[in-house]
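Section 3.1: Structural characterization of target chains.
Under the original work plan, the team committed to producing a structural model for every single-chain target entering the pipeline before any wet-lab resources were allocated. The record below documents one such target. The sequence was received from the expression subgroup and is listed exactly as submitted; it comprises 134 residues.
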Amino acid sequence: MAAGFSGGCSLSLQLDSMFNGDKNDHTGSIAPAPLPKETGVQPSDADLAYTRAAASEVLRRGGKDASMPWENPASGARGTVTPIASAYTVEGRTCRDFLASYVSGTSQSWMQGEACREKKGGWEVRALKPWKNS
């Protein structure tokens, strides 16, 4: 599973070097390619397992404004999990909501989820469903 997380770091370094290089090399005259439109593609159970693992890990780390990339090497699907809002209490347990991106080929979609801290200290994803922008 560690291999899935390393891809986000290398992409980040590549983007940093591209955008933090010599500013005179970038004229701004070429617009970036548009992102693929949302298609509502549904992730497989294996992809969801990677998403849940990333959600548990980013919440365990507890950093403010943190995100955790994930990737399923078998399917090539990938995304990022980002906690949103503040923690709250449900049935005596601390819970957090999160958003997860899902990219497969040229399709992308978003999921929303809820995870709660277990008595053992780990986080359990209680809900993960397609995100409805309201």
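Confidence is low (pLDDT under 50) at residues 1-38.
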